[in-house]
Specification:
The complex is a heteropentamer, with 1 copy of chain A (314 residues), 2 copies of chain B (256 residues) and 2 copies of chain C (253 residues). Chain A is built from 13 helices and 10 strands. Chain A is α/β, with parallel strands linked by helices and 314 residues long. In chain A, helix 5 links the parallel strand 6 and strand 7. Chain A starts with 16 loop residues before the first strand and ends in a 9-residue tail after the last helix. Chain B has a single domain, classed as MetI-like (MetI-like fold, Orthogonal Bundle). Chain C has 2 domains: 171 residues, Rossmann fold, CATH 3.40.50; 67 residues. Chain C is 34% helix and 25% strand. In chain C, helix 7 packs across helix 8. The chains are: A alpha/beta (314), B mainly alpha (256), C alpha/beta (253). Chains in contact: A-B, A-D, B-C, B-D, B-E, C-D, C-E, D-E. The interface between B and D is large, with 45 and 44 residues. Strand 2 of chain A pairs antiparallel with strand 1 of chain B, so a sheet runs across the interface. The structure holds adenosine-5'-triphosphate (ATP) (2 copies) and magnesium ion (2 copies). One magnesium ion binds next to helix 1 of chain C. The site of one adenosine-5'-triphosphate has 12 residues of chain E, from strand 1, strand 2 and helix 1. Chains C, E: Pfam families: ABC_tran (PF00005). Chains C, E: One of its GO terms (molecular function) is ATP hydrolysis activity.
């Protein structure tokens, strides 16, 4: 029998570079872009093999700085704090353009504006920043934040406490707010960004270490290009994005993920020219705001805290 | 088995009480899900739970194994060399006051986010009971047995093999059983530090998705796995130490 | 065969020096059964510890067949005050412990021990663990273990001290039988005057601490002996002699 | 005290090693601060640390007290009524496999946000060793002592007071000491659930502010407090049970 | 004064029924010292448990001064086989335990006990804890505790079983002295033929299980007695009698 022709040897693809990303929480719709990029092979196209990890204590900031993971999902407050403590991390992209958090209460409590919160019970986790934020937001509306009663609810979730032990708490609309919609619990939410421009900070953001930027700029660029592509797809096809997220984190509540992803798809890029782009005034404004309220020991150099350099050119 | 009947009944009654109070007081399921709901979640997410459980089991077993090795070596060093015991034992006891959750982040920073830090958390949790029990076992060996072997001209190695090892075995296994109880829990704590698979991950994800019944389902899985591990050790103990479990008939009836 | 020469031993304890043995000398001939009797705490076990090499005397020598073995282990087979059966070994494996330490293969030792079990009243118990044995049986296992070591001299420290009077009587009869058969050289510690007289060829009486040899009595009662000897006149006379020697030790008399 | 000299020296050597390796390997202080830095943080933030420690101490002591009451009552019930023991004991042992961190959020939901859930966490952590030790103490009381009192015509109350209570005391105190070791840690875990004051809060805040040396300072505080508590219990034990600690002179020297 | 009539007792154990006592009858007169001797495990302690009311017989009666006290506690002062001193009570407080149970105020009891300490060789130890006592002293504390209960009859279960031969001898002498002085009614269990003969007015010999009364010997030796009695002819004759009765119980003879 004629000898079968040996198939031409396919040139072995260059070995993939191992890259790790640590999330700021359990996987949620904020992270969909990362999973999409992984699932759709955007990372592989760039020669990367990305592993996505869930975090606990401590957040990813220290791990990124210590070089234990390459990238992390963090938020502007943490990056600011870290840089003030000389921990060299840098924000590469804002995952959501505007702050989607706010003070939520049951509709029947009728707390529609910050001033209404006077004399009400706030359920928080006891960080000094909470006091400052509440006072700032209420001051803008002519209210007195000192009149709010603070109650520690720690790790208890929104739904187990609201309307019982406390009147309002601080939530991310894209997760808890959507869950409330699904449960048909009507809420009033006072969004932070509507009342104090300084509080319209970026949360979450994608970070890496200064060392990576200096020594492995190419890798950072490849990672961010693929990630951008992932988030762009999530913006364009939220249902597809949600499905991919659920495939990688099947423990999540599917209904919640679907609804949340749809809501977020309009928030991710929002009014920015491009997904992920950050503005210096946001970084400086928030740092200044923190410094003024003694939440920071020293002022940070805002333009070192973030960079847009690794986003794909537009 | 028979002697556990009454606790099992008590447990069933507790479950029923729980089921009915949830019903009667209309407790919302995200505050306290009814046992039936938990059972449902257990069944519905069984394949997923199994997958995570396997990861946790691997971590727990590796950590447990590491703790057995570390604990036994340290206990032997302490049991055989008094100055090691005098020096190390107080430090080990004091170290127990350090909350593992406070040290765990350091483990992650030092050893990365892979399986290693989880294994180390399990080992840290498990190693104390094993060490303490084994040291106690070695301490309580009848010194006259050692003396007897000395009169026979035995070497230190023979004394170790013929008297000290077997004499410390019951305490050693007692320590193993305590450690086994905590090993799965240790792995879950380790997973809370970060990772991508395991019951601890399943648990936090469920918690953050407001799926309280799944949180309970994972507690059930943790307990079941712990009990299985303890059971396995009990079986090994019985096989290793038949003399301890031999039925003692009325001693007076075997007269000279 | 065994000679102990001018042994002196002092312990230091938190409460000061404890002078235990003072210039003790004694001798045991080959095939002789010699007992040592003395008040509790006088230093009998200490003497055995010295003979077996577990401890060193402050002064004095231990000679075995003329050879100085002071402080050397392994020349004697020592049966301690407790039976010290290892609970994790079967009866048979307890018996061969000494052989195992000497490096004899387990199988060889087991065969040798198994042949002796019936004689020691242990037939059928070879594979039992010690928990199931009665007190008398335990002592016989310990005794077999001691015998099997194949040493020239056996040191028995109150082997029947923990047995009740009736079991003890039976063990006496049994031991007399064994002794008739094998004629081992035995040095035997006891508190019990009846026991010492019934079993021995010679009895040493020690004083209270510091122990010295108060009396050295030849027991000239014909062998084989049986238990009824205890109430015979010759026996009672010797007993009186020993009891008097012991009474002299008492501080209050 | 003297017998701890060698461990203390070993500890000092460890500290020195740590100090120098941080120096030599240039380990960044947010990863592992040098002991000198920790000492500095300890001194600098002493008043703050003291304030938080007081809160934690109050929680720990309340929880510990609660555990003592719960544990003793349960142990007495189990020690005196065999059927209670047969039913409850296995359940208690199995409950030990449940990670406290998994139940803690429920405590918050059920018992509010005040000091109560923290106290409960401490109590849950502490109650197991106390119960188990006390039950064991009651189990190992010489039944012949009970028999003796019965022949004297004693009532059950008298037997409890004259034999069972004092007979179980040494085990009870052993359990107390183990619990005390873990009580401060329990309070810190409780505080991690949420709160505004206490070492746990101080610790998480320091962690989130990347002040690792303060995290270590709080670990030092936790250890110190635990040791003080254990010491206090040791003193109480010595005062309560003088017979256990009475110097035993050579028994042979007190001849009749 | 104390009469035991046709007592029978069977235990059920996992291995089947254990028939312990079979139709036992015996009597103790006022001020009499009566010993019970019998093989280990024959049921001696069981008999005491029945007399003291701890257990009920299957059949038979216990009469105290003609009154039926079967199954009633508190009529007798029982000294168990172990000394059972409570380690957490001082010597003095151990002595008054029985009084305390009876409801006597501590102070009253302590005064009563303290007066007796010298006679019991316990002077200066009132406030010591039992750990520091020697074996003989412990037995004397236990004995004082039994005496202080002020019952008409003392049940002593092998009080000297755990003592070494010399201490035992001293205790015998001491007990003979105490008995001469107070003449308590005593029922005494022992394994030791010498002990039984030396102390008692009468000795019952029990058989192996199921125990029956094999022999009932009057000990007609004049009082006061001393230890040397043991080697006297009359004594040895009685001993022979008892030993023979006991030997008949042995299964293999
Ligand atoms: N290692 C030791 N250190 C200090 N003193 C000791 C030591 N060993 C024994 N003694 C003391 O030496 C004395 C003699 O002890 P030994 O055990 O030889 O007595 P004994 O005659 O065998 O007593 P018994 O008949 O009770 O067995 C005792 O008073 C004891 O206190
Ligand atoms: N509670 C019990 N259940 C079953 N059997 C028992 C019980 N108590 C005693 N026996 C059995 O009854 C028999 C007699 O026991 P008892 O303690 O009365 O003997 P004794 O003559 O006092 O022995 P010793 O001389 O060893 O003290 C023993 O064979 C024992 O096994
Ligand atoms: Mg001795
Ligand atoms: Mg008895």
């Amino acid at each position: 029998p004629p000898k079968k022709e040996e198939p031409a040897p396919v040139p072995a693809p260059p070995p993939l570079t191992k890259v790790t990303v640590m999330l700021d929480w359990t996987p949620n719709t904020n992270h969909t872009g990362l999973y999409v990029a992984k699932e759709k092979g955007f990372y592989k196209e760039q020669g990367l093999d990305v592993e996505i990890l869930q975090s606990g204590e401590p957040g990813p900031a220290q791990l990124v700085a210590a070089g234990k993971v390459d990238f992390g999902v963090s938020y502007q407050e943490e990056v600011t704090n870290a840089r003030a403590a000389d921990i060299p991390i840098v924000s590469l992209a804002a995952v959501i353009q505007h702050n989607t958090s706010g003070f939520a209460s049951l509709k029947e409590a009728n707390l529609t504006r910050p001033k209404d919160l006077e004399g009400k019970r706030y359920g928080g986790w006891g960080s000094p920043a909470e006091h400052a934020v509440i006072e700032a937001v209420m001051a803008k509306d002519g209210g007195n934040g000192k009149k709010v009663k603070f109650i520690d609810i720690g790790s208890a979730d929104f739904f187990s406490v609201i309307g019982k032990k406390v009147d309002f708490t601080w939530i991310y609309y894209g997760w808890d707010g959507i869950q409330a919609e699904l449960r048909k619990i009507p809420l009033n939410v006072i969004m932070l960004k509507d009342f104090d421009k300084a509080l319209d900070y970026y949360t979450p953001v994608i970070i890496t270490s200064e060392k990576n930027i200096k020594e492995r700029a190419d890798l950072v660029k490849k990672f961010m290009h693929a990630t951008s592509k992932g988030y762009e797809l999530a913006i364009a096809q939220p249902e597809e994005g949600a499905k991919i997220l659920l495939k990688h984190a099947p423990e999540l509540n599917a209904e919640l993920v679907m609804a949340s992803q749809k809501w977020l798809s309009t928030q991710l890029q929002a009014d920015a020219p491009q997904w992920g782009r950050q503005k210096k005034e946001v970084w400086e404004g928030y740092a200044q705001w923190m410094f003024e309220r003694k939440l920071l020991d020293k002022m940070i150099e805002a333009d070192k805290a973030f960079t847009n350099e690794f986003l794909p050119p537009k | 088995m028979k002697r556990y009947v009454s606790s099992f009944l008590a447990f069933l009654i507790l479950l029923l009480l729980w089921e009915f109070s949830v019903e009667i007081f209309q407790i919302e399921k995200f505050i306290l899900p009814a046992p039936s709901l938990v059972a449902g979640a257990l069944i519905a997410s069984f394949p997923l739970l199994l997958e995570h459980s396997l990861q946790t089991a691997v971590e727990a077993l590796l950590g447990f194994g590491l703790a057995v090795i570390m604990g036994t070596c340290l206990a032997l060093a302490m049991g055989l060399l008094p100055w090691v015991k005098r020096t190390v034992y107080p430090l080990i006891v004091v170290s127990q006051t350090i909350p593992i959750m406070a040290v765990a982040p350091l483990l992650i920073i030092w050893f990365g986010y892979d399986i290693l830090p989880k294994v180390l958390v399990v080992a840290l949790v498990c190693f104390f009971p094993i060490t303490v029990s084994t040291v106690e076992g070695l301490d309580h060996i009848d010194q006259d047995m050692v003396k007897l072997l000395l009169t026979m001209g035995a070497t230190p190695g023979q004394i170790l093999r013929l008297v000290k090892f077997p004499g410390a075995l019951p305490s050693f296994f007692a320590g193993l059983k305590i450690s086994a109880t905590y090993s799965i829990m240790g792995a879950v704590i380790g997973e809370w530090l970060g990772g991508s698979k395991g019951l601890g991950i399943y648990m936090t994800r469920s918690m953050h998705s407001f799926l309280t019944e799944r949180v309970f389902a994972s507690i059930v899985a943790i307990t079941a796995m712990s009990l299985i591990l303890v059971g396995i050790i009990e079986i090994i103990a019985r096989l290793t130490m038949p003399w301890l479990y031999q039925k003692i008939s009325w001693q007076q009836d075997e007269k000279v | 065969m065994l000679e102990i020469k001018n042994i002196t031993k002092t312990y230091s304890s938190p409460q000061g020096e404890i002078w235990t043995l003072k210039d003790i000398s004694l001798a045991v001939g080959k095939g002789e059964f010699v007992s040592i009797i003395g008040p509790s705490g006088c230093g009998k076990s200490t003497l055995f510890n010295i003979i077996s090499g577990l401890e060193r005397p402050d002064r004095g020598k231990v000679l075995l067949s003329g050879q100085d073995i002071t402080g050397q282990k392994g020349h004697t087979a020592y049966m301690l005050q407790k039976d010290l059966l290892l609970p994790w070994r079967t009866v048979l494996d307890n018996c061969i412990l000494g052989l195992e330490v000497q490096g004899v293969a387990r199988d060889v030792g087991r065969k040798r021990a198994e042949a002796l079990l019936p004689e020691f009243g242990l037939e059928g118990f070879a594979r039992s663990f010690p928990v199931v044995l009665s007190g008398g049986m335990r002592q016989r296992v310990a005794f077999l273990r001691t015998m099997l070591q194949g040493k020239e001299i056996l040191l028995l420290d109150e082997p029947f001290g923990s047995l009740d009077a009736f079991t003890k009587g039976e063990m006496h009869e049994w031991l007399l039988g064994i002794w008739e058969k094998y004629h081992p050289t035995v040095l035997f510690i006891t508190h019990d005057v009846d026991e010492a007289l019934l079993l021995s060829d010679r009895v040493y009486v020690l004083s209270t601490r510091p122990a010295t040899v108060k009396l050295d009595v030849e027991v000239k009662l014909e062998r084989p002996r049986f238990r009824d000897l205890i109430t015979e006149e010759k026996f009672v006379k010797l007993k009186k002699l020993l009891l008097e020697a012991l009474a002299q030790n008492k501080p209050h008399s």
